[in-house]
Specification:
Strand content: 5-15%
Structural class: alpha+beta
CATH architecture of the largest domain: Up-down Bundle
Radius of gyration: 39 Å
Oligomer: single chain
Length: about 450
């Protein structure tokens, strides 16, 4: 996972050399991979998710730390002339001689029992893995958001292209009709009807241009791109689709998703984490031991130099950490419930996404299997007949409208299929390598 993350960063740095940052540049063409790279470079939410991973790794270091020993020095019998004339052996008994102050040097070390440190290490390890799963899940969700905005821009561009084509087409028809009007081949009312359709086509073009600008603004906001002098254009690629199991039975896909989805894996890791925390809470009742050792030099004592060794153990008589155990048990049940809810959501995601994919794919196939060709044939045939006076202006206009609507439906169907594919990718938890171009024809 981290290797893929650093690939994103490297790709973003390379991208900076290819995108023109001329202040006068208006349009910059982006592939979907380039859009994703910019997004990951600038998106603060993903950076925050990465920080969570680093925080979890810091917690691992803390959990694995061995308690530091304690070293102590104590001076006793401090006075102007300490132990003057002391009688014990080793000290001059003269009443005018000071034998010095008492000195105590101690060392203590806490020794954890019942495997508490090991449980903390295992618990923090599961927490780090869960954070990495959250990071992968953030990539899964954010990638889908970028793709939807990107292909929304592509759809708006296609509609603008269609509107421009229709405007130009009506311009040619109007020129021909002006000649026919002068020659008396058509009535003025028929000419005006075609002219009004041409004006309506121009309005459609204006609306299509506005839709493109709105889609560009949406993508720019999502990418965190603040340069208003740069407007992104999507490449003219509808895409081909890799085999991600879309032809497999629904139950098989659900099982695959249950194995692959990073959000579910993260939830399961948190169950493992809370299991360790529950076991740790139960073992808190086993007291830790503090070992003490030291050396003492006491001129007022018969034993001038002496050492000592001891143990200290807290006695859990009044409180046996029931609160920590109950809290850990509640957290465990909460995480188990989260896993069940995530599994239900995954099943629903897969069923919904698969149904949307199958429907969108069939609709596009119908267009490719003849609907587009038929619409163009009807339009051309109607225009030819109208130019020869063999059909009415209403039939001609109706054929033009049908063609326009058919092409809009086709573009919408293509975008629906692209989005449905990636929604299925997201539902299954499939990791697409964004450095590969999956969208070339």
């Amino acid at each position: 996972m981290k290797n893929n993350y650093f690939k994103f960063i490297a790709f973003c740095l390379l991208l900076n050399f290819f995108i023109p940052f001329d202040a006068h540049a208006q349009n910059v063409t982006l592939t979907i991979d380039e859009a994703l790279a910019i997004f990951y470079q600038r998106n603060l939410d993903l950076i925050s998710a990465q920080y969570n991973i680093e925080q979890s790794k810091a917690d691992e270091i803390i959990a694995a730390a061995i308690p530091n020993p304690t070293f102590g020095v104590q001076l006793s019998e401090i006075a102007k002339n300490p132990n003057m004339g002391a009688s014990p052996a080793g000290c001059n008994p003269s009443p005018n001689v000071s034998c010095g102050i008492g000195q105590n040097y101690s060392f203590s070390q806490l020794i954890e029992t019942a495997g508490k440190r090991g449980l903390r290490i295992e618990s923090s390890g599961f927490a780090t893995q869960a954070a990495e799963g959250d990071f992968k899940d953030a990539i899964r969700i954010f990638s889908s958001m970028v793709r939807e905005a990107y292909f929304g821009l592509l759809q708006a561009q296609k509609n603008r292209w269609l509107a421009q084509e229709i405007v130009e087409h009506y311009g040619e028809v109007l020129k021909a009709n002006q000649l026919r009007l002068k020659g008396g081949d058509i009535s003025e009312s028929d000419f005006l009807r075609v002219k009004m359709e041409a004006m309506h086509a121009q309005s459609d073009l204006d609306n299509a241009q506005m839709a493109v600008q709105q889609a560009q603004a949406k993508l720019s906001v999502l990418l965190g791109w603040a340069d208003k002098n740069v407007q992104f254009e999507a490449t003219d690629d509808w895409g081909i689709f890799k085999d991600i199991g879309q032809n497999l039975p629904t139950e098989t896909l659900i099982n695959n998703a249950l194995q692959q989805r990073p959000d579910l894996q993260a939830d399961k890791l948190r169950i493992e984490q809370t299991n360790k925390e529950l076991e740790l809470a139960r073992r808190l009742k086993y007291p830790d031991v503090t070992v003490n050792a030291g050396y003492a030099r006491d001129p007022s004592n018969n034993n001038l130099n002496s050492g000592f060794v001891g143990l200290s153990v807290p006695m859990p008589l009044f409180y046996q950490y029931q609160g920590q155990e109950d809290k850990a048990f509640v957290n465990l049940n909460t995480n188990k419930l989260a896993v069940e809810q995530t599994e239900i959501a995954i099943r629903n995601d897969v069923v919904t996404a698969l149904a949307a994919w199958n429907s969108a794919d069939k609709i596009v196939q119908r267009f490719n299997n003849g609907l587009l060709k038929d619409a163009l044939t009807v339009r051309n045939s109607s225009e030819f007949s109208y130019s020869r006076g063999a059909t009415s202006v209403l039939d001609f206009i109706e054929a033009q409208r049908n063609y326009k609507n058919m092409m809009r439906d086709y573009y919408a169907a293509m975008i629906d299929r692209v989005n449905a594919y990636h929604n299925l990718v997201k539902a299954l938890g499939v990791e697409l390598n964004t450095t590969d171009n999956h969208f070339k024809k």
